[in-house]
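Input C-alpha cells:
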C-alpha cells in the first residue's frame, strides 16, 4: 500500500519533450511541450452534464489540469525544472507515443488493481521561467545593504548580488550604493545569473554577478 501511494503522488515526464526560448537563445523564458503520467480521479471521468451530449475529453482534461497543473502556477515545478508561468493546449492520451496525435477518439485510462484512481498521459504546452547560468537579466533595485544588492526581475522574481560580485568601482556610502561615477544606484541594472535556488510555492531566489569572467 505504501509503495502504491507514493506512485500515485508522483508524476512522470515523457521523453517526447520540446524546448524553445521565447526570445533569443539565452532567454530565461522557455516554451516547452511536456507529457506527464498522472492520476485521474473518478469524478473527472464523465463528460455528460444534464443529459447533454458528451464533450470528448472535456472533463478528464479539466480535472487533470485543476488537480495537477493549475496549483503550480507561479511556483517552482520540479518536473519542468522551472517556474510555471502558463500552460495551454492540454490533451490526453493512453501512451506516451500518442501524445502528438490530434484525433478525438476515446482514451482509455490505466487502472491498477483495486485503487480508485487511474492513470493517463496529459500533454500541455508550458511557458516556463528557467534562469540558467550565464543568462543576462534586468532587475530593478528593491533592497540595498552593505553586503548585498536586492533586485526584482520581471516585477516578480527576486535576485541578489553579493558585495564581492558588484563592480569594483562601486562604493557603499552608508545608506546606498554609488556607481563608478558617484551616482546613486537606484534604477534597473543588468546582471549575469550565476545560480538559483528553488523553494516550492515561494518560487526561486536568483544569485547573480555584475563581473565578467
Amino acid at each position: 500500500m505504501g509503495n502504491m501511494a507514493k506512485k500515485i503522488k508522483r508524476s512522470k515526464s515523457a521523453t517526447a519533450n520540446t524546448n524553445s526560448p521565447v526570445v533569443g537563445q539565452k532567454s530565461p523564458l522557455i516554451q516547452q511541450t511536456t507529457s506527464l503520467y498522472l492520476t485521474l480521479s473518478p469524478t473527472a471521468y464523465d463528460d455528460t452534464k444534464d443529459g447533454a451530449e458528451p464533450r470528448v475529453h472535456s472533463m478528464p482534461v479539466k480535472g487533470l489540469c485543476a488537480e495537477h497543473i493549475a496549483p503550480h502556477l507561479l511556483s517552482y515545478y520540479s518536473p519542468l525544472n522551472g517556474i510555471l508561468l502558463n500552460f495551454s493546449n492540454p490533451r490526453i492520451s493512453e501512451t506516451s507515443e500518442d501524445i502528438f496525435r490530434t484525433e478525438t477518439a476515446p482514451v482509455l485510462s490505466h487502472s491498477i488493481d483495486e485503487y480508485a484512481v487511474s492513470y493517463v498521459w496529459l500533454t500541455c504546452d508550458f511557458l516556463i521561467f528557467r534562469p540558467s547560468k550565464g543568462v543576462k537579466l534586468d532587475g530593478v533595485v528593491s533592497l540595498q545593504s552593505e553586503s548585498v544588492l536586492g533586485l526584482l526581475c520581471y516585477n516578480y522574481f527576486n535576485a541578489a548580488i553579493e558585495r564581492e560580485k558588484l563592480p569594483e568601482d562601486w562604493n557603499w556610502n552608508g545608506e546606498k550604493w554609488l556607481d563608478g561615477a558617484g551616482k546613486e544606484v537606484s534604477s534597473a541594472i543588468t546582471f549575469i545569473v550565476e545560480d538559483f535556488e528553488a523553494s516550492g510555492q515561494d518560487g526561486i531566489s536568483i544569485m547573480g554577478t555584475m563581473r565578467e569572467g
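Residues 2-129 form one domain. Confidence is low (pLDDT under 50) at residues 1-16.
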